[in-house]
Amino acid sequence: MADTFGHHPWTVQDLVGGVTSGQVRLPDIQRPFVWSNAKVRDLVDSMYRGFPVGQLMFWENTDAAHSRTIGIEEKSQAGSMQVIDGQQRLTSLFAAVKGQQILREDYSQERIVIAFNPITERFAIPDSATRRSPEWIQDIRDVFTSAIDARSAYLDKLEEARGERPDRDTERVVEEAINRLHHVLSYQFQVVQLKRHVSRETVADIFVRINSEGVTLSASDFILTWLSVFWEEGRQQIETFARDSRFTPQELTRMTGEKVTWSPKNPYLTLDPKHILRVVVAVGNKRAQLQDAYNALRGRDPRTRQIIPENRERELARLKEGQARVLNPNNWDEYLKVIERAGIRTSSMVTTKNAVVYGYALWLIGRTEYGVPVDELREVMARWYFMAQITGRFSGSVDSRGQEELNRLDGLELTPEAFKASITGQVDTILTEDWWRVTLPENLHTSSTTGPAFIGYVAALNILDADVLLSTLKVKDWIDPTRRPVKGVEKHHLFPKDYLKQTVGLRTTRQINQVANQALVEWSDNIDISNQPPHVYWAAQVGDKTIGTERLAEQEWWHALPTGWTTMDYQEFLTERRKLIAAVTREGFRKLSDPNYRAQPPLPAQTQDDEHALATFSDLVLAGSLPPGTYLTPTDAETDSIAEVTEDATILLDDHEYRTPALAAAADGAEQEDGWAYWTAHLDDQSVVLSDLRASLEQDAA
Question: How far are the Cα atoms of 460, 557, 590, 689 from residue 464, in angstroms, in the given order?
Fold first, then answer.
């Protein structure tokens, strides 16, 4: 063991000089620089007072392909000492002493500045108070550069501020404090130096053991560490893809000085290396349990727990092949169309990034292994993503959920049909009739407009190309991140807050801000709603707009306004609107499920002066006059089409569902016909034209 490492003293000046020249380098098995400026301040303060701040660990290795520099400037020497433990402290010292910018975790550049008060011997992060005070040296870098010049400039500044030269005692205090700070450059670190012959796997194992104490590392940290040792190029590819997801090609061109024509930046999410790693391991190694993936990549035999190099090489080859697919720009761009197709427009609509991550893994498997055509894959995966997000499928137990998705594909025939059937079957199993009618309305019993249920509703409005309420604008345009905010369009309370507080007597914000009381609406600037009840302000708002009756009826349906909602009790309104929101959300999902979907706008709302409204198709089904499973054929027999009544009170024709007889007739080529007269229902004991069946039901009701 004595041949593995030795102990060597390094001063701060030695360390900073080594980093400056490039002799001391940061290997990529380290985490990004994450210390706050306050923690850097505390480190300098501890060294100033002579407190111990821990040891460092280096590895004697001249392989520059496995290291990167601290800071953003080019180095003059090849690295011979790579930092294994102590990156945060070493980066902090380098940034504070040299005043050079460092790269933060989000890849932004920052210069860390620490201020010092020689009179009180306090360190601080510069703020407006320290900048106004002559008693503070604004940047300790000035002291490290030249203690004499820093002391002279400080005393001159004190004299100018006070109108007189500081007394001898003050000068002595200042001189001692500044000299003491300058002597921090002589502070000695004990450095454990691993010798040149130590293997990469041993170095990685040492790193994992050290960093498993104190800060808990995840399995993804371990895998990234392993990659840094055995496939540094792959680790760098992952980091670059993650970095580039934050910047446009133009921004990357300015940052790198090289012409960049593409980046993975998108409106939905920024990636970090761990997100990309999950997809790579899922696609290449068919694993979502990252701890299992780490053991497999190391080549560990699950039975003997021994490391078998052949196993390691096999798993690494699989990972490399998977990563090539994951980082392919064409694949990424095509997959993003899935998210857009599912109604998502901005990052605020992504309720969990892991649904996007594992959706990409499934998309890649479907495209590259099962050969599903891109257009068909987009539709089936849009339905899967809609399901995964609205049900919160990846909100917890991410590894387990991801493994379930991969296991579902085990043993499938490698055909497009098999893949599509598997995904569709999963979606149908989860989004059952009870889920739509019971679970989703219950999930809407919330005041969170960022939760999966309400976001799913907004996504459905995008899919349906719905208008903003009382507006000619589209919901998707209002949300579009590339457009400036549309003035006047907001989420408004349908029952005004002041009305609920002052008249209804509600006090809890949660009740007032229920999502079922909020709508995407463009109120008229000419009308003050204030604390007016809905039955007062609504008529005035509608009257001030130029929206036609039919379009208003469509908007009222899209925005789930119950019939007679303006005069409803508030709690009754919430209950009914939750059901309607769920119904509209389901309609958006139905459009995802039907490539030949036709918009089915509701009939214009009946006025309060009507004696009665005509029975609807769903009324006949619910009343038992038209049982599910009943066959419908054209009354005049001009075509041989056969339609069927579904349990959802729709008409199934050629694998597509229609809400009304008129829409089903139009789909059968009879757009000018009265749908009720067009279809004849074949009941057990007789065949009846739908118009006659409706008349019979209305007569019985009368």
Answer: 6, 11, 10, 32
Q: Give the SS3 label for residue 475.
A: helix
User: Does the pLDDT value for residue 682 go beyond 90?
Assistant: yes
Question: Quick one: average pLDDT of 225-229?
Answer: 81
Tokens of 11: 């001063």
Query: CB count, 10 Å around CB of 109?
Result: 12
Query: Strand, coil or helix: what is 527?
Result: coil
Burial of 502 (0-12, 13-18, 19+ CB in 10 A): exposed
Q: Please state, in angstroms and rounded to a whole number, the distance separating the CA atoms of residues 549 and 657.
A: 26
Q: From the CB of residue 244, how many other CB atoms can be counted at a distance below 10 Å?
A: 22
Q: Which residues contact 463 (CB under 8 A, 6 or more apart)?
A: 341, 342, 343, 588, 589, 591, 592
Q: Is the dihedral of CA 471, 475, 480, 486 positive or negative?
A: positive
CB atoms within 10 A of CB 576: 19
Q: With CA atoms as reference, report the closest residue to 515 among 450, 464, 470, 437.
A: 450
Is the confidence at residue 647, as pLDDT, over 90?
Answer: no
Rounded to an integer, what is the distance from CA 274 to the centroid of its chain?
13
Burial class (CB in 10 A: 0-12, 13-18, 19+), 306: exposed
DSSP calls for 321-356? HHHHHHT-HHHHHHHHHHHHHTT--SGGG-S-HHHH
The pair of structure tokens assigned to 74 is 């080019």
pTM over 0.70: yes
